[in-house]
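retry 2 of 3: previous attempt timed out while embedding iron/sulfur cluster. Reduced batch size to 1 and resubmitted. Inputs unchanged:
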Amino acid sequence: MTETAPIEPAASNEISSIFDVRSIADIYSEVRDLYLSDHRPWIVGYSGGKDSTTVVQIIWNALKGLSPEQRTKPVHVISSDTLVETPVIIDTINGNLALINKAAQEQGLPIQAVKLYPQIKNSFWVLLIGKGYPTPSKSFRWCTDRLKIKTSDTFILDKVSEHGEVILVLGVRKSESSARAQLMNSYKIEGSLLSRHSKFAQSFVYTPIEDFSKDDVWTYLLQNPSPWGGSNRDLLALYKSADSGECPVVVDEYSPPCGNSRFGCWVCTVVTKDKAIMGLIDNGEEWLEPLLKYRDMLAETQNKEKKPIYRDYKRMNGKIKYKRDGSGELIRGPYKFEYSKQFLRELLETQREVQKIGPDPNLQLILPEELHEIRRIWRQEKGDWEDSVPKIYREVMGTDLDWIQDDRGMFSGEEGNLLEVTCQKHDIPVQLVAKLLDIERQVQGMKRRAAVYSRIEDVLGEEWRTEEEITKE
Ligand code: SF4
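retry 2 succeeded.
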């Protein structure tokens, strides 16, 4: 299809197609005009799914129509990697990002693709296994914010401080739902192609495919080959094997929620069934089965009746809280430490298995940096005197990581056993004494020890009755 030829209307159940009223040349020209209208850099969210691929491709083709002197404003294509992306999908995304960077340079386009990662302290495994966060659900979806929004926020604010203002280009469509259409309309700036950003006053949003239907998107992708050498037919095949939907780069309220994702995390328990992995397995990627098993194991912990088995009766702050419905039921806290250890062991076993049966013998489901951070949290916050992470790692993987040995003053497992016996004898909660000793150890050698009193107070203020005692009372 050429730029001037209007696209044939797509065979669609939806009422109309964008191409009934606009030609692709018209859309390219709108993109070019907006690009040339100021110096604000563009940040394009790219998830590897059909909508964001369409947006990047439209921008690419539009900018190619400008002279090299006009193509000076940077266009950043950002893609967030949650570190728990579905392996096959992330390989495709990585491949496309590399192709985008190479082809943009060759074709003299100011487009640059970057991958964004969550901070290790906010990674999925550090929060779930390290801190004990329950696996995300519809009612407690902590992951999107920490794994996606925070990372893109940091990038956006960075560019804002460099350039004053930025324009985000997003692949959202009104036909996704009437709620989405309503939300998009509510941010529109009268008489402008741009909308306000829901959070940052210095960022504006441009949505070039807002009036596209799903069929329009596929029509465009299938009639216009990928300008960076990717394959839109492979993308279609991916959708066929993994159902529709995608987990986009979430940058603000504008972005569709990613719970019902196919391009999302392999470990996602926000959806009831992980159709993405199931679709891929059905399509011959049987080596992903251990991942599905692990994800289902985590999903199981969400069952109402199983929560008391897996989750602590105390909240993260050590206090108890009752449900508001008057049932006298406790709101459960983080995973019990014994289960955190079990989850780590099973995750490493899963990793070992997929390394053996899958195409990549070095595939990492959890990074060494995450293991170091989990170890630190367990030792400093969970009273893990045994130092379980290196032990579990060695038992499962048969090797050691370069564990930091500088643990001066750390208590050992032997001391932990001794403490347990002593506390039992005197009927004192062992965790209480362990926490107090840990505080004392952490402030050793410090000149100013004033903060130690409030920390001791916090520990003493935690709930130290057992669950049985609370229930009886
Ligand atoms: S795909 Fe699921 S686990 Fe991943 S960020 Fe989205 S909702 Fe959270």
